[in-house]
Amino acid sequence: MYGEEKTPAAAVASGQRGKVKVYERILELLEAEGINAVFGIPDPNFVHLFVEAEKRGWTVVTPHHELSAGFMAEGYARMTGRPALCIATLGPGIALTSGSMMTSLVENTPVIYLGGQRARITERRVRRGRIQFIQQEPLFANSVKWSTSIEYAEQTDEIIRHALRVCQSGTPGPVYIEYPSHVIQQELDVPPALPPSSYRLVEPSADGLAVAKAAELIRNAECPVLLVGHAVQCTRAGQKVKELAELMGCPILQTSGGTAFIEGVEDRTFPYLFSDVGDEIVAKSDVVVAIGTEIGEPVHYGRGHLWANGKTDRKWIYVELDPEAIGQNRAIDVPLVGDLRTVVPQLSAALKGNPRKEHPDLKRWIKEDAERLAALANQDFKTDSGRVHTGQWVIEATKAMPKNAIHARDGGCTVIFTWTYLQAKPHDVVWNQNFGCLGTGLGYAIGASIADGGKRPVLLTTSDSSFLYHTSDLEVAHRFNLPLVVVVAVDNSWGLEVGVYKRTFGHGNSTEPGVHWSKDVRFDQIAKGLGCEGMYVEKGEDLGAAVTAAFASGKPTVIHVPIDPVVNHGGNQNLDTPNYARFRTWYAEGTQ
Questions:
Q1: Cβ-proximal residues to 41 (8 Å cutoff; 6+ apart), any chain
Q2: Which end of the chain is more exposed for a tag (fewer CB within 10 A), N or C?
Q3: Domain Thiamine pyrophosphate enzyme TPP-binding spans what residues (predicted)?
Q4: Equal CATH topology for 20-198 and 379-587
Q5: What is the pLDDT of residues 122-153, one digit of tens each?
Q6: Under CATH, to which class is 208-364 assigned?
Q7: How many CA atoms lie within 13 A of 472 on its CB side?
Q8: Class for the domain spanning 20-198
Q9: Are the C-beta atoms of residues 181 and 45 closer than 8 Å to each other?
């Protein structure tokens, strides 16, 4: 089954080894890190690698666009806690992939991009009119943490190992390795691949004195809180953070990028910025333990907006792998520099002898937030057009989401509505927070499901504008028979941009050029044409049953839901998008 650990079929004992090809060695080195999937479209540079990967039991995933391959790799990495491998052919292939490099960089996702290139005898000629050729490496250097080329076969081990080192050290991110065709068939006489601990620092711990100081601050606090970002999910460290939260007796605040709930502490977890309970918790907090977050603009750098109220002299403890991040966005009282998978248990161990009692307001906060969600679901969702209200679209789709489902998100207005109306508490969420890149959702959903081995259901909630980017990859979902249900909110426009026109020029004062398209697009029918199932749901109250039936079918399914375009972009005066004014405060410097 794809997504599971496998023993490489080609692995041999040290005494029986002969020479190995460069492409075989690359796979061996990646296998030592637990990587066993490759995303990309093969060509002469990579057909040998793909054949060998398949022989070794790897999952080989070929999408229908190189950009989508990068998104799939990113979704895979987020679900495994390990780097992912994305390949692309020379010239146009790697050029089309480059957008996902930038996404991986801004989203802090460790993806190894392996790009084909002409043999150096051709690449270094002074010639014009070469086929499928550009000078690739300089173009991508600023889009990755490290960029290099395998110039000589003997460099393979050091380059791949350093790529693995760089993409997982400090702030995680992508690397680019050029793979010229003249080294593909070269052979190496090398020993078996070394374990990761022999060539890189694996899950470093924090300074003991700093841990003791942090524990003392927590013990003496009146209202300590955990501020949890998406790296907790990406490192698969949820249960370690759960133990810490229980020892602290505290609430958990989610950043907007870290919206996955930790199993066992769902009820004490609240959204930062998008709930009254969250506002109160911030105001009362006197010690904040930030884990797996950049403390960036969406949380107002831990200084502005909500943090400017209440106990503004609160102390900050920051669990962070990258020492250069300490103090950049705000002053940190106790930096715990190290891998959160190691540091969080260190902090828990320091608190175990004297755990805190639950905060006296915790049960009330849990009750009030549950009441907030129930009230949202019970409001009147009638629209003038008769089409589905975006809030009801979110509620009905997420109420029907299986408890163990992976939730992928994509879109503009629909994501803003999701922050407010979400009814589920998924343990895994993949979406594009920092870069704000549309069109990632289907690739993220497929990559996450591949990483999961197709065991858990996956719900992708997306808008038509986002889904149109890569609809062809529904064929990939069909090919792997993934348990994927896509619920598409269709307003036949770039909804968020319609709102921008209205805010800029006033309602009715512009033709809103370029943001409206044909109302004849039918995503349910497109899905059927690509081998999946399709459903068309016109009434919001029918959506939950459709989602349940789609998951029960066991087949990848797309549900087309016409939504009200006026509601979706916030009404004619842009007053009705939920929490939109709060969302705009993310742009903390006031420049947008």
A1: 62, 63, 66, 69, 87, 88, 89, 93
A2: C
A3: 410-561
A4: yes
A5: 666 777 777 666 778 888 889 999 999 998 99
A6: alpha beta
A7: 9
A8: alpha beta
A9: yes
